[in-house]
Write a structure and sequence with these properties.
By secondary structure, the chain is α+β, with helices and mostly antiparallel strands. It is built from eight helices and five strands, in the order H-H-E-E-H-H-E-H-E-E-H-H-H. It has a five-stranded mixed β-sheet. Helix 7 (about 145-150) packs antiparallel against helix 8. The longest helix has 17 residues, at about 70-85. About 25% of the residues are buried.
Length: about 170
């Protein structure tokens, strides 16, 4: 079984550990992660809170209701088969009818986050995306005064008040 932060977990690994995944989500010990067979990300598990915060309920048709964890364990293999066939809708699941987690395809997860699809044939784990953070060639430093001017008169007023307080001026 793959460990968190290492290789992609298999469908069977996740199926056998559905209750553990839910427990780790509840404790905040697990972030969204991909899983699939052959080391290829095919599906994503994420918290319902993340799904909801990113507007998932309005972006996707999903399986009605909240599926019990036991049902997820029993149906996970067929869910991934539906993902492979391109006929899967996200599934919200949890205990006692409480939405706690979501299963979706990697493509649906990219759509949820607003990420681009990778080029065809590229193996891509959307839960481990790394984005370039270097400055652009046209980037330049800005002073606090320039930033406040860009933000408008209220920001300029607040900056002036802060400076007066620091200087001890009235």
């Amino acid at each position: 079984m793959a460990t968190e932060g290492s290789a992609i977990r298999s469908v069977d690994d996740v199926r056998r550990d559905v209750a553990g995944v839910l427990s780790r989500f509840r404790r905040g010990r697990t972030m969204a992660f991909s899983f699939g067979d052959g080391g290829v990300p095919e599906a994503v598990l994420l918290t319902y809170d993340q799904f909801e915060d990113l507007g998932g309920e309005s972006k996707f048709e999903r399986r009605p209701g909240v599926v019990a964890a036991e049902v997820v364990g029993a149906e996970l293999v067929s869910m991934v088969a539906a993902i492979r066939a391109g006929s899967f809708v996200p599934v919200v699941w949890g205990d006692a009818g409480e939405p706690e987690a979501v299963i979706m395809s990697t493509s649906q997860y990219r759509q949820l986050r607003g990420d681009d699809e990778p080029p065809p044939g590229t193996v891509d784990d959307p839960t481990r995306r790394v984005y370039a953070s270097e400055p652009l060639p046209t980037s330049r430093t800005m002073t606090v005064d320039e930033f406040a001017a860009m933000m408008g008169p209220d920001a300029q007023r607040i900056l002036d008040e802060i400076r007066r307080e620091e200087d001890g001026s009235p």
